[in-house]
Structures are given as structure tokens and as C-alpha cells.
Write a structure and sequence with these properties.
Structural class: alpha+beta
Largest sheet: 7 strands, mixed
Strand content: 15-25%
Radius of gyration: 20 Å
CATH architecture of the largest domain: 2-Layer Sandwich
Number of domains: 3
CATH superfamily of the largest domain: Malate/L-lactate/L-sulpholactate dehydrogenase, NADPH binding domain
Shape: globular
Number of strands: 13
């Protein structure tokens, strides 16, 4: 089935408002989750509503955090999220990074006492829409094996960077340091589907295509030592620099419903107008994109694609036609809505195709 953007966003926001979030904060969380589905990142979309809601009910998220921003210099700040929902803390942090960049040319913000913040590109896109180059990254509970390891000792540690363009869509790179986001393995396990070879190890450190076994074991980093190295440096920027919990100190997001994680995050914004007129920068970006897309495609490819181009096309299509929801996700949304006292908008569903 398929549902319109505004219907899904309104339902999601209503669920979180019912669970105690202020209307503005509930809207931010909804925008983050639905935005992931718009771009085809189902692992970080509304599939997360049930676990977010459960953590709110158990007091593991602070629904009404007192977020404190401390300016450290003209271009640096620290955000204490007071255990608020990650999207709320992250939005406050990237907005602070942009405010610093507006006055100093660059803004760097570390966030502490935060939580799972959804897709990292939600924050870089927010900055790009306002004309900034931006970086966002977060640490995560240990689900990935570092290079040479056979057990989960570091997180999938997502990293995003984005830059505005002119006639072309913004360039948006959003990736985990693992070969795949663990959320995709969770989705495969829920659908009782296998995962590709090379994604994960089982609890004995052996390669597996069984999604359930992978969840008991470890996700692999992409590119061997390359992904592992990036994961380590994301941990440094997002957690060590912020004074947040690191690696082994972080509880499992789904299975530990007792401990607060204290995740760390890192945000950077660059005001391109400090380097050249914004129009000149956008024109130069278009020139770069066009020069790369002029490259003859390799065998098996129709065109050269830019970072985020597939997702941008998918987003435009889903804004127009609606967001498809699998039977499994739809069932979880109905249940989450029922538990929160928010009826799912059945009348808004349309058949796919």
C-alpha cells in the first residue's frame, strides 16, 4: 500500500505528541523519520516508531528535554541534549552550527547526552537548504566488528556530508561505516529474508546470510580497514570529543530497555559565501556535476550518478505519488498507533501501482 507524505507525517507527529513531546519536537521527529522513507532509507524511517515509542514510555528518552547550548568560541559550541530524542537534539545542534557559521564562517558543534538521531543526512540537508556545506556524524552501540575482529566492538557510526548546487540537486553523501546499515539487517530479519554474503558474521565470528544470526553477531565494515578506520574517527569526533559514552559503554538500542545510552554527535557547517559569492559557488558546483556526468558510462550502467542523486529522484517521486509501506511496516504502525491512542489513517491508503 501507499500513503501520502502529509498523512504519514501527521500520523507520526500525533503519535509522538501523544507520548509527551511538544508539537514542534514531534514534528521534527516525524520529519526525520518520514524523510528517511522518502529517500528510500526504510531502515531509519517510520519502522522506528515502535521502538522510539517504547523507549519514551519507559522514560529512556526525555520527552521534554532542557537542551543547553554552550558557546566555546566564535565558531564552536557544545550542546547538552538532556537525553532528548536524537532528532530534536541534532536539529538544535545543526541550527547552532549554522548560526556560528553565519557569524564566523564556520560552525562546529558537539552534542552529548543524545540518542539515535535517524539518518545523518537529515541534518546536512537542513543546512544545504540554507546554503551551507555541512557534515554530520554519530556514534552508535557496538554492532560492527573492527577490522580483523570477530565480534561487535564498534558502532555502524554514520557519516554524512552535503553541498548545495545550482540547477542540479545538492550533493548528499550519507553512509554508515559498515558495509550496510544494521537497520537493513533488522528489516530483513523482520521480513524473514536472507541477507547478502559479506554483510555480517554470526556470534561465532563466521560469515552468515541469516539475518537473525547476523543480529546475534556483527556487521562488517565496508572496504575492510577503510570502513573500520572511518568508524574509529567518527567515534572520536562524535563521542570522544563530546565526552559521550564510547563503544562498549553503549547499550543495545533494541534489547536493553533499561539504560540510557548517552550518544555523541558532531556537526559542522561552512558558509560558502565567505569563500566566494554563493551564486559563483553554485555555478561551479553545476560545472563539476556536469563534467562528471559527461563521463561515458561503464558496461552495465546507464549513467554516472552523483552522491544522493538516486535518493533525490526517489524523494521527488514519493512526494508526488506517496510512500509505499510494506505489510509488516503497516502492521507495526497500526499497533503503535493503537497503543498511543492515535488511529492510523486507513482512508489515506492507496494501492501501489
Amino acid at each position: 500500500m501507499r500513503i501520502g507524505l502529509e498523512d504519514l507525517r501527521s500520523f507520526t507527529a500525533d503519535v509522538f505528541a501523544t507520548l509527551g513531546l511538544a508539537a514542534e519536537d514531534a514534528g521534527i521527529v516525524a520529519d526525520c523519520l518520514v524523510g528517511a522513507d522518502l529517500r528510500g532509507v526504510y531502515s531509519h524511517g517510520v519502522i522506528r516508531i515502535p521502538i522510539y515509542a517504547e523507549r519514551l514510555r519507559r522514560g529512556l528518552f526525555n520527552a521534554t528535554p532542557n537542551i543547553e547550548v554552550t558557546r566555546l568560541s566564535a565558531s564552536a559550541a557544545r550542546v547538552d541534549g538532556d537525553n532528548g530524542m536524537g532528532a530534536v537534539v541534532g536539529t538544535r545542534a545543526i541550527d547552532e552550527a549554522m548560526a556560528l557559521a553565519q557569524s564566523a564562517g564556520i560552525g562546529v558543534v558537539s552534542a552529548v547526552h543524545s540518542n539515535h538521531y535517524g539518518i545523518a543526512s537529515y541534518y546536512t540537508q537542513r543546512a544545504v537548504e540554507r546554503g551551507y556545506i555541512a557534515i554530520s556524524c554519530s556514534n552508535a552501540p557496538p554492532t560492527t566488528a573492527p577490522f580483523g575482529g570477530g565480534a561487535p566492538f564498534i558502532g555502524t557510526n554514520p557519516f554524512a556530508i552535503a553541498a548545495p548546487a545550482g540547477a542540479h540537486p545538492a550533493l548528499v553523501l550519507d553512509m554508515s561505516s559498515s558495509v550496510v546499515a544494521r537497520g537493513k539487517i533488522i528489516a530483513a530479519a523482520q521480513a524473514n529474508e536472507p541477507i547478502p554474503e559479506g554483510w555480517a558474521l554470526d556470534k561465532h565470528g563466521r560469515p552468515t546470510t541469516d539475518a537473525a544470526a547476523a543480529l546475534e553477531g556483527a556487521v562488517l565494515t565496508f572496504g575492510g580497514p577503510k570502513g573500520s578506520g572511518i568508524a574509529v574517527f567518527v567515534e572520536i569526533l562524535a563521542a570522544v570529543l563530546a565526552g559521550a559514552n564510547i563503544t562498549h559503554q553503549l547499550p543495545d538500542f533494541y534489547r536493553n530497555l533499561t539504560d540510557v545510552p548517552n550518544l555523541g554527535q558532531f556537526f559542522l557547517a561552512i558558509d560558502v559565501a565567505r569563500f566566494m559569492p554563493a551564486e559563483s559557488f553554485r555555478a561551479k558546483m553545476d560545472e563539476l556535476v556536469e563534467s562528471l556526468k559527461a563521463c561515458p558510462p561503464a558496461a552495465g550502467h546507464d549513467e554516472v550518478l552523483m552522491p544522493g542523486e538516486i535518493e533525490a529522484r526517489l524523494e521527488a517521486e514519493r512526494v508526488r505519488d506517496g510512500i509505499p509501506l510494506s505489510a509488516e511496516i503497516l502492521a507495526s504502525l497500526r499497533e503503535a498507533g493503537a497503543q498511543a491512542g492515535v488511529p492510523f489513517p486507513e482512508e489515506a491508503l492507496q494501492p501501489v501501482g
